[in-house]
Amino acid sequence: xxxxxxxxxxxxxxxxxxxxxxxxxxxxxxxxxxxxxxxxxxxxxxxxxxxxxxxxxxxxxxxxxxxxxxxxxxxxxxxxxxxxxxxxxxxxxxxxxxxxxxxxxxxxxxxxxxxxxxxxxxxxxxxxxxxxxxxxxxxxxxxxxxxxxxxxxxxxxxxxxxxxxxxxxxxxxxxxxxxxxxxxxxxxxxxxxxxxxxxxxxxxxxxxxxxxxxxxxxxxxxxxxxxxxxxxxxxxxxxxxxxxxxxxxxxxxxxxxxxxxxxxxxxxxxxxxxxxxxxxxxxxxxxxxxxxxxxxxxxxxxxxxxxxxxxxxxxxxxxxxxxxxxxxxxxxxxxxxxxxxxxxxxxxxxxxxxxxxxxxxxxxxxxxxxxxxxxxxxxxx
Length: 381
Description:
Blueprint: H1 3-9, H2 50-62, E1 67-71, H3 74-82, E2 90-94, H4 99-108, E3 115-119, H5 124-130, E4 135-141, H6 153-163, E5 166-170, H7 175-178, E6 188-192, E7 206-210, H8 213-226, H9 232-242, H10 245-264, E8 272-273, H11 283-289, E9 296-299, H12 306-313, E10 320-321, E11 331-333, H13 345-350, E12 358-361, H14 367-378
Parallel strand pairs: 2-3, 2-4, 4-5, 5-6, 10-11
Antiparallel strand pairs: 1-7, 6-7, 8-9, 9-12, 11-12
Helix pairs in contact: 2-9, 3-4
């Protein structure tokens, strides 16, 4: 089954009771039982829900996985993964990652004895040296948020398997359209499904995919025991969004390439971070590892300041100043004060995340309108 067909059909079939083509919203909290323990596969909606089960079947196949577990948010999904560890275990995480992921590892799980090291995962040899007897998990983002760096998934997972260390790839920025980390050796794939999978900025959800029954069973246990589950209406909206995932991402990538080239040639813009540009230091890895270069673009200004960034952020019309990414509409954000504010400034600057860095989530509008929008905003500089 090709990917576009998967988006529409994978794991899904018409409702057996009515023939409904779209998976129904099973808005119920509990299910009738003929006698204690004798039921039709559903007992209580925190534990199972038919709409959620259909979504999980669909999600698994999008990442070429055997299992998928849906959670109420991407961070809830991450929390479940880190709960697979024990106090005293260590995590090696990419040093340029979503601020919420950093906050959870340091401020939440750090309190319970999980030690996290934030390093440049592009240095594969350095990662191998850092692994010790306490290392249990390598946390990968690729492309990273917001500097659009790449991690060689196959190289890192090869080392991890040799050392018997789990690997998890946050595949939110790429989406399953552009890369499938399980095929490259990852044990776990995580998505903030809020972003490209949903695609319409109307639902918050997380998803975890794996080929390991042991990992899946533990995550299903945590899903039920902790209870951070998505509701049936959210699952319905997610299924609705996924049906156009491949078309949305294809169009957004096409727009992002043109915008990245426009920014790279603009006299007022300094560095442009986009894997599709030939001067990106990991452009060849992007060509090898991804099917396209994504729709996220970050850029900075020469000797930029926060005030310079604000002049642009406050003067766009089609690029909406807002948190999040991956929707049909284009968004513009300021990582230092928004998505990555929980990371200390000193740590942000180490990876190049300056106070004037701007992150674009390029949508599916007409690209000429988007470029004109940025151009008129730059006139305020």
